[in-house]
Amino acid sequence: MPPLRGTGAERYAEEPEYAGDYRLQACLGSGGMGVVHLASSASGLRLAVKVVHARYAEDPEFRARFRQEVAAARRVSGAFTAPVVDADPDAERPWMATLYVPGPTLADQVKRNGPLSPAELRRLTAGLAEALRDIHRAGVVHRDLKPSNVLLTDTGPKVIDFGISRPVDSDLHTETGKLIGSPPFMAPEQFQRPREVGPAADVFALGSVLVHAATGHGPFDSDSPYIVAYQVVHDEPDLTGVPADLAPLVARCLAKEPVARPTPAQIMQALLPPSYAAEAFIPAQRRRPALPEDEDAGHAPAWDADTPVRAPAPAVPRRGPRIRPRPTIAVAAALALTAAGLYAALSRPADRPETPTSPDEVATSFTGWTTGLQKYGPSSAPACTHDAGALYCAARGVGLARLDPVTGRILWSRTAPVEQGSPEVPVPLAEGLVGAAAPTGPLRAYAAGDGAPGWTARGKLPEVYRPAGEAVVLSDGVGGIRAVDARGGKELWRHGLTGFGVPRPGPYDAPSGLLTVSEASEDATHTRVAAIRPATGEVVWQRNLDGNLDPLGRTGDGTLVLAAFYGADASLVDALVLLGPGGDHGAVRRLSLPYRMDLRGVAVSGAVVHLLDADGHLTAFDTAAPKGKVLWDLETAAGNVSPPVLGPRDRLYFSVQDGRLLAVDTVRGALVGQTRPRLRNGRLGYATTVPAPVVAGDRVFGTAPDGSVFAVDARDPASW
Q1: What are 461-464's contacts with CB under 8 Å, separation 24+?
Q2: Residue 243: pLDDT above 50?
Q3: Entry's SMART domains (predicted)?
Q4: CB 605: neighbour CB atoms within 10 A?
């Protein structure tokens, strides 16, 4: 049913009368993204319906993010949230409906009736901790937990207004994006590293919310958002007035470092036994909104609930002052904290090789391990590979090391060449050999058994290399392309490819034995793609395709998948292009993605392409569907991630720049486990380049910016 327009003179006169089949009865509140209405279904079910502002409905990117928000909100619906009932992100005015939950917000309750009693406060603490536990299990970080986003009901608190999609009207802005949240309830890392905010930020916000509930003010108070931001990052919280039995727990929640804060489960454990349950919260009476035939007290705005509920007509809803600070470099500089460096030592000298652990020594249950690999210099995440039952890793200053995959012992290591500035990356070569090279070469071979140096492939210019079966293909970036024998390092061939100016080696397909090579035109309107045999340099086929494309890999039937960049912008991908088996004879299909992605990597399983963007948003996209189909979306709230890697048991793994390793169930699209961040000299470290984890059977090997390599049991990610 098309939306109908009202004719009144007030600010809501132009709001629609319907959202889908739901008649909008009254306004419950308004925020930056939309208006929340009371509505009812045909069966009489009371709903809170958010309708997006018209100015955002015309923005395709906003629609895409709203679509993500709807998908994520469905996943977190539970006992401590307002369940999603229906939604239509593709409507003329996108909308989402949740169950109407009677009850005041915590902000309104404290404002009207003063701080909560100790028993009410303990009950609130336990309820919010349980809510955060369930939200985080769904792979979501709220980012904006505050008193106005907590509803108080007789069955416990409900968390609303999920900040899953970054709102376009954030209060604070930086050069690299927007800081998500409300300054008095934001964690230090939200000011310092807004793109790397994790679940611990919600725990910090919980601590601030509890101080507000206990005292009527926050732990960091000022009229200036700049001063609040400085206090959050540098000053100790003011816990005056917090009950003595809760103050230590609240102080832990407000720890500056994320790893020092308790998890929601630990907060729940700390509150046992549940003596607080004896006193249930009874919502205080409050003014009722002017609702048709409505006798209920309370309200349930499901988003943007920072405005008081509308009083009886003709009063207009009041908005609190919005914090819109003036741009300033000084404030950003004052908030920026530099991470302390760490000179991580090797866990043992590696002058001579050791004997790897025998398989007979391996217990049925695998015990994880952590090994410090980096020898000197600023810390960075090592890169690893697994080949023939051995684990090989390289780090800054460590050209290559072999680790026992069962115990993590360093069996041998070789120091990186003096002239090598960037960390090297290990690569399997041939039986008995393993290689290592920086991103632009040269490539050096070592004996797998004892690390003895072997051959070196060095060009006149730095070269990009691609292992391809028994050969390694190298490109110098100015037009030269060649291959060397992986076993002996002998050059196999060298030539320029017809039709190419500067060919780029792409993914190697082992089943077909072909390496993809590509080059986009200068105007980014088309891309030449070819397949070559690495051992001979033979060009099997060439094809000109429309668009600025980058080969990603092949599906189960041999179809080549290419990322299509948005126009000349080589950072955002808005479609996938499929080139059917046969190359120059294959059919071409273009499948639009639901939104533009800053891709960090893909993992292909059959016809399903798993796309991971820079913000940690993971999408499973079925290329077998005629127009493509999103099977599921997962918001992991991880920033600066590695390429994803598929493993057994329908699992997918990727690393985060703070050293975390995440595991995702690819059937359900659910986060099933993650490791802790890895400290560097007592502080979190962040890697600028995040190597992909390595999966080998029932083990997953990750690396961290403190220079360590670690192993976890892939069979039980929940225990990480």
Answers
A1: 464/439, 464/440, 464/504, 464/505
A2: yes
A3: S_TKc
A4: 14
- Tell me the binding residues for ATP: 50
DSSP helix/strand/coil, 596 = strand
Cβ partners under 8 Å of residue 188, min gap 6: 204, 232, 233, 256
Which CATH topology does 1-337 take? Transferase(Phosphotransferase); domain 1 (1.10.510)
Spatial separation of the C-alpha atoms in residues 327 and 528, rounded to whole Å: 45
Could you tell me which residues are annotated as the binding site? 50
H or E stretch covering 248: helix 247-253
Q: What is the dihedral of CA 509, 510, 512, 518, to 10 degrees?
A: 20
Cα–Cα distance for residue pair 570/591, rounded to 1 Å: 18
Distance in angstroms (rounded) separating the CA atoms of residues 9 and 713:
63
Whether the per-residue pLDDT at 241 is higher than 60: the answer is yes
Among this protein's residues, is 144 annotated catalytic? yes
Contact status, residue 264 vs residue 253, Cβ threshold 8 Å: no
> So what's the pLDDT on residue 308?
28
By the 8 A CB rule, do 489 and 455 touch? yes
Q: What is the pLDDT of residues 370-427, one digit of tens each?
A: 999 875 555 678 999 999 899 999 988 888 999 999 999 999 999 887 555 567 889 8
Largest pairwise CA distance in the chain: 86
Which one of 144, 161, 574, 633 is the catalytic residue?
144
Beta strands 150-153; 156-159: pairing state: antiparallel
How many residues are recorded in the chain? Answer: 720
Residue 221 confidence class, pLDDT cut points 50, 70, 90: confident
Which is nearest to 485 in space by CA: 425, 429, 530? 429
Structure token pair of residue 187: 């964690």
Which residues neighbour 1 within 8 Å (Cβ) at sequence distance 6 or greater? Answer: 18, 20, 21
**DSSP code, position 689:** S
Average pLDDT value for residue range 73-102: 82
Which tokens go with 650? 């329908």
